[in-house]
Structure formats: structure tokens, C-alpha cells
Amino acid sequence: MQYDYLVVGAGFAGSVCAERLSSAGNTVLLIDKRDHIGGNAYDCVDSNGILIHPYGPHIFHTNSQRIFEYLSKFTDWRFYEHRVLAELEGRRYPIPINKTTINTLYNLNLQDDEVEDFYKSRRIAVSEIRTSEDIVLNSVGHDLCEKFFRGYTRKQWGLDLSELSAGVAARIPTRTNDDDRYFTDSFQFMPSEGYSIMFEKMLAHKNIEIRLSTSYEYAKESESYRHTIFTGPIDLFFEYKFGPLPYRSLRFEHEHFPTTEFFQETGTVNFPNDFNYTRITEFKYLTGQQAEGTSIVREFPQSDGDPYYPIPRPDNEATFKKYQELAEQSRNVTFVGRLANYRYYNMDQVVANALSACEKLSGQKG
User: Fold this and answer.
1) Kind and range of the H or E element at 32?
2) 224-230 sheet: strands from edge to edge
């Protein structure tokens, strides 16, 4: 059989593309090297009956009504606002840094209109913002940088703040009030039955054939198709012509506590300076599941393993640009998603990227 599209990767990018293209009347072969759909957003019930995210927490948030309405075709939602604490010397403080963080940490009693002056008194003026260190020092100064940012960044990325592009630290704001929500997006929800069921509904179209535990190398030699949607690492696609692009990986350590209702007081606790893991997430907060016992995951960043995060540095971006030029010259292939675009996209950004790509391909079969 000849397919209109071969879609490589069944995560958000590939699944959205498969759904959109099949709905437009195209035949789609969707493959994934893993034995499940959903990519890193895949969730499942563990052996103790708790719905978990095997590849770490995935918390949906967006300001785009369009993205929210699109995904709402495949799931109902559970309202959920994520909250994070950071542990310093045995005490826990809200993250992003807010008024409560400052008052508790420094034994102060600042009011909302006084917090900005506090930040101003601590800031170190940086004339040219080039790195994440520049961003943090220019925002909150040296002490808060050392307490909350430098150690966490070194664990997460294997690099110092001064070695990372400014955009990494720019993702985390500071606040002058007591708002302790990790995100402030207009839409903050979790799929009511989980991500995997949402993906199953998304991919239920009769024009989609799904093959799991299938490599791209095998499919491109054994199948007939007119166009490829590639959502894997772009350097892999071009056989590392300009050398491998650096990615940061993760190792996950899952643990269940059968007699504990809740392990910690909020969904995620960060550990910027202690231990060799960056954070612990407790899934019952995310899912709202009522169950005996609780399951957590600890995240250990590492250099080897499946690629999770493109590492934002100028030299890496220069290498990516070379691959991007090859991609633009390639006929009959479209690159979609975080790894294919070497971008630190959130889930909603991946969906937007996939929808945009499919709109450009609309009516095109070659």
C-alpha cells in the first residue's frame, strides 16, 4: 500500500499531524520506536493502581484558546493549577520567587508595593544580556541566584548559568505578590482521563495506521509513501552530517508509598542545591486521583540517554542552523516538534507547530 504520509513519532507533534492530515482525507502511516503512543506525554496506571507519567510530569497550560479548543475535541478536562516549592536547608519556599518567598527567607514583612523595591536593591546591573546568569543577576541579584538558580541549573543542564543562553532563565519569572501558581496561563487543565486516552481518541481515524516498536530506518526502506513528517532529532535524520547536536537527557526513579496519602505538600518540590536529583513530583496532585497510597518520581538529569531538552547555547544554535538549511532544501519531508526544530517547546507550542505545518501541507500530497 502507498500512504500519503509517513509520520515518524507518535508524541504530540506526530499525533496532531496524523489527526489533521487524516481528517483532510489523506492516508497516514504513524510509526514510533517505542511500544506506545503519546511520546513523553504517555501516561499509564502503575502496578499499584496510580496513574503516573513514566517520562516525568507533563502539565498542560496555554494562553491559546485555539489550542485548547482543538485538544478539547479529544478530551474532557480537569482544572489544575500547578504549584512548586524549592527546598533550601530543610525549608521550602514558593517558586517562582514571590512575596512569600522573600518574606519567609529573609524574615521580612514586605507588602506587595514594597517587593519590587527589594528586588531593585539586590539587582546587579548588566549592560548587555547574553547569558542566563545575566538574566538572573539583573532580575534578583547574587544571593537569590545562588540559592535558587545556579545549583539547579548546573544539575539540570550540566552547565553553569553563564554558559547558557539567556532564554533558559527567562522562562521563570519573579513576582511581587503572593501568587504561588507555577504558571499564569489562561487555560490550566489536565486531561480528565489522562494523556494516553486523549491520544487514542486523536488517532482513532480510519485513515491512520499505527505501527509501534518500528524504527524510521526500517519504515523508510520497507514502506511506500509520498511525504514524511519527521518529529525526531534533526541531526539523526541527516545522519549527523555536521556532528551530533547536544541534548540533555533524564533518568527517572519512581517510588510508591502504599500507606501514605500524600508524600509532599504540593505537586512538585525542587531541590536546587541538595541531592543529585532536581525535583520530586507526586502524581495524585496532577491527576486528582483518589486512591490509597501515592506514587512519586525523582528526576536525575544526565548527558546520555533519550534526547529531552535541546541545550540552548550559541554554538549549538549555529550547528542547528546548518541542519535547518538542509531541511529547507529537502523535498517531501517536513520537520515538526521540539527535537526536529531543536527548540525547548512547551506542549502547547508543539501543538501549534504541528497545526501550522499541516495547514501549509493542506491539499498537498507530495
Assistant:
1) none
2) 208-211, 28-31, 2-8, 224-230, 333-335
Q: What percent of the chain has pLDDT over 90?
A: 94
Sign, Cα dihedral of 204, 206, 212, 216? negative
Query: Over the stretch 70-97, which tens digit does the pLDDT of each residue have?
Result: 999 999 999 999 999 999 999 999 999 9
pLDDT of 133 strictly over 90: yes
Q: Determine the distance from the C-alpha atom of residue 31 to the mean position of all C-alpha atoms in its chain, rounded to a whole number.
A: 21
Query: Which three cell numbers mark 289?
Result: 486521583
> How crowded is residue 316: how many other Cβ atoms within 10 Å of its Cβ?
16
Helix and strand counts by DSSP (H, E) for the chain: 14, 17
**Residue 203 contacts residue 18 (beta carbons within 8 Å):** yes
CA distance 335 to 230: 5
CA dist., res. 313 & res. 151, Å (int): 18
Residue ranges, CATH 3.40.50.720, the chain: 2-37+203-245+311-361
Q: Measured between alpha carbons, how far is 335 from 234 in angstroms, rounded to an integer? A: 8
- The angle formed by the CA atoms of residues 317, 323 and 329, to the nearest 5 degrees, is 135
CATH tag, 2-37+203-245+311-361: 3.40.50.720
Among residues 325, 330, 307, the alpha carbon closest in space to that of 228 is found at 330
Please answer whether residues 21 and 28 qualify as being in contact, where contact means their C-beta atoms are separated by less than 8 angstroms.
yes
* Chain centre to alpha carbon of residue 101: 25
Instruction: Sort strands 279-282 and 294-302 into parallel, antiparallel or unpaired.
Output: antiparallel
Strands 28-31 and 2-8: parallel
Model pTM score = 0.95
